[in-house]
Structures are given as C-alpha cells and as structure tokens.
Recover the amino acids of this structure.
C-alpha cells in the first residue's frame, strides 16, 4: 500500500507578493505542510498574521500559517525551502542553506545562469534537473525562470519541432503585480505603457536560450525582445514572431500544442477566438496553464505569429517553484 508523505516546507520572503502566493497555493495542497516562515530581521519572533499585509486573492490566510512566528535564516530546518527573496539576499543565503543539506527552490535570479543549477520548467526541460548532481553541496538549488520567460519558453518550445528557427522577435506586456508590492507608482502606470523594465530584456534572452538548449550548451538562436509594463493587475502577455528557415504550416503548429497536451493534459489552452486570450477573462488566481492564441501565418510562409499568456504569480513565480519542488521529489521517488 502506498503511504503518502506530507513534506515540510519553509518559505523565505514570506510577506511579499510571491511569498503570499506560495502560501496560498501550498495551503490548498495536502502534499505539503508549511512549518517555517522567514522574513526581514526586524520582524523576527513576530506572528506572521500580525505583520503580513495579506493581499492574496486566491484564499484567506490559513489560521495555522497565521500563527507561525517569523524566524531567521539560521533557524530554518525544514528539508524543503521555497525562496521568494530579492536576488541580492538570495545570493548570500541560499548557498548557506544548501550547505546545511536543505533543498532550495528559488524564484530569485541569483543562480539562474549558474552552470550547475537547473533553470527548470518541468513541462519543457525536465532533463535539466540532472544538473543538481554536479552541485557539491548536500542540499541542492533549483531555480525557476523570470516570469515573462516562462510564458515565452512554454509557447516557443513545442514550435521548435516544426522547422529550423532562425530568429525570434518578442514583445511582452507585463502586469503591475510583476513588480511586487507596492510596485509601480499609480502616477506612472495608470493610463500608460512603460516600454522598459530594468534588466528584463537581458534576462529573457539569456534564460530562454538556457532553458531550450542542452544542459551544457544554450540554444543558438537570434532573439530580439522589447518589454513593457502595462496597467494590468495579473497576467503577462507575450507576443512572438518566429522566423523559420523554410516554410511551415499553421496545422503543424496546432498539432504540436495538441501533442504537448497529450503529455501534460491541460497545460496549454489554445484559444480560437481572435480576441483571446485576455488576462481579465481567462486567468484564474491558481492558474498553472499557458494560454495560447492568435496563431497565424505572417506575410511569408516561413513566419509564424502567436500570443502566450498566463498568471505571472502562479506559473510565472510561486507555482513554478512548487512545480520544481514536486519534480525534484518525483525524481527521488515521489511521495512514497
């Protein structure tokens, strides 16, 4: 008889938007139990429910989690750790936890491009999880990508099978929640589009090449990216145009998403309507899906256009770290 194990988890950066989403998602998942929460030093010893500005729309704060006292990094003992830390702090603290034998699943960018650290989307490059075998610490670090990179890589990955891609042109429309809380000033974003996010374009290019390449060699692909912050609360939209060496077909593109859904049921939602997907109409607060739309040919038979969209706080951040944690456990024998 199979006995399910409940895995104990600590969350670093528990009061922020990503940390709150992690708590909300794990509170609804009976495979995991949140046992420790870490926040800034001035809050050590305080009750989580008394200090957090709970803004998570998925659910109310679990009373058991609310009663947890905030602790410091050196007090973390849970074997599984989800990090929603700023990268500057993650760079210092995550390796310390790994050296103590704890496994860290990080949303921070600090180690994404490290040669021995998986930059993982399980539905896209699960084999890259083997990179942890090269880490010398007894605990391991696994990272998830930048929130916009997730939807770009997921939308692009199935389409690499239909021809030789020579160039990729990308335009992102990224929601305000991607900037955290309080995020972008209302004076800057209301009724406006900001055509720049610091370091974002470089992250998208580098991370996409690593995710879609081999473990030891990034994919050789020409990429142009423009990023924009837009007045949308939740949901990143990525418009892309793929330039192939030879002519391709729309039917082949649709078939690739259908084939991917056979392997990962429901992961892709392919919208047929011309005005979909839309963040307000299609994204849920626990949405682990990639919404695909506007699949169309360009003015030449070797050009394909499409939209990829999803919840930047779920599949683009908190849910991505949880999915990587589950992939890691599955690789080690799962819940047996």
């Amino acid at each position: 008889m199979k006995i399910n194990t409940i895995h104990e988890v600590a969350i670093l950066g528990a009061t922020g938007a990503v940390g709150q989403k992690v708590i909300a998602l794990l509170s609804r998942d009976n495979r995991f139990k949140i046992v420790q929460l870490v926040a800034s030093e001035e809050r050590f010893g305080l009750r989580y429910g008394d200090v957090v500005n709970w803004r998570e729309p998925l659910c109310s704060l679990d009373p058991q989690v609310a009663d947890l006292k905030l602790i410091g990094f050196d007090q973390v003992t849970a074997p599984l750790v989800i990090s929603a830390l700023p990268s500057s702090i993650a760079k210092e603290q995550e390796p310390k936890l790994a050296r103590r034998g704890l496994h860290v699943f990080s949303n921070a960018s600090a180690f994404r491009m490290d040669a021995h650290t998986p930059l993982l989307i399980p539905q896209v490059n699960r084999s890259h999880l083997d990179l942890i075998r090269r880490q010398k610490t007894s605990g391991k670090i696994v990272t998830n990508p930048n929130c916009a990179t997730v939807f770009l890589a997921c939308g692009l990955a199935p389409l690499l099978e239909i021809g030789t891609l020579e160039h990729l042109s990308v335009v992102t429309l990224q929601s305000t929640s991607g900037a955290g809380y309080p995020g972008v000033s209302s004076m800057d974003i209301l009724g406006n589009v900001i055509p720049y996010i610091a370091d974002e374009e470089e992250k998208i290019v580098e991370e996409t090449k690593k995710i879609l390449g081999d473990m030891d060699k990034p994919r050789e692909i020409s990429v142009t990216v423009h990023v924009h912050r837009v007045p949308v609360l939740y949901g990143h939209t990525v418009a892309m145009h793929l330039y192939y060496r030879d002519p391709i077909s729309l039917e082949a593109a649709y078939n690739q998403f259908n084939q991917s859904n056979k392997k990962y049921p429901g992961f892709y939602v392919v919208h047929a309507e011309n005005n979909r997907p839309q963040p307000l109409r299609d994204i849920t607060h626990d949405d682990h899906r990639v919404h695909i739309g506007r699949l169309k040919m360009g003015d030449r038979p070797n050009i394909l256009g499409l939209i990829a969209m999803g919840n930047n706080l779920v599949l683009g951040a908190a849910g991505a770290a949880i999915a990587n944690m589950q992939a890691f456990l599955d690789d080690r024998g799962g819940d047996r």
Q: What stands out?
A: The chain is about 30% helix and 20% strand. The mean pLDDT is 96. The CA atoms of residues 97 and 226 lie 36 Å apart. The radius of gyration is 20 Å.
